[in-house]
Design goal:
The chain is mostly helical. About 85% of the residues lie in helices and about 0% in strands.
């Protein structure tokens, strides 16, 4: 991501993509939490939402490590 930000012509496109991603991601977050609670009915609401948030953090950490590894080669 830092390598993309170094190009001046991509600055506006990068800002637009981040804004659109944040806008739709924040709108989708409560729906996904409610769906996870409904799909895992016997489990408590806090446990289901907590596991969903935790799995999101684990996947973002994994994605960061993998993409950082790929960026060092190119």
């Amino acid at each position: 991501m830092l390598q993309i930000a170094q190009y001046a012509e991509l600055e506006v496109i990068l800002a637009l993509l981040c804004a659109v991603s944040g806008l739709f991601g924040l709108a989708l977050y409560p729906v996904c939490l409610e769906l996870s609670v409904e799909c895992s009915f016997p489990v408590g609401e806090g446990t289901a939402a907590g596991f969903l948030v935790l799995s999101g953090f684990v996947m973002s950490l994994y994605t960061s490590v993998v993409f950082t590894h790929f960026m060092t080669f190119y």
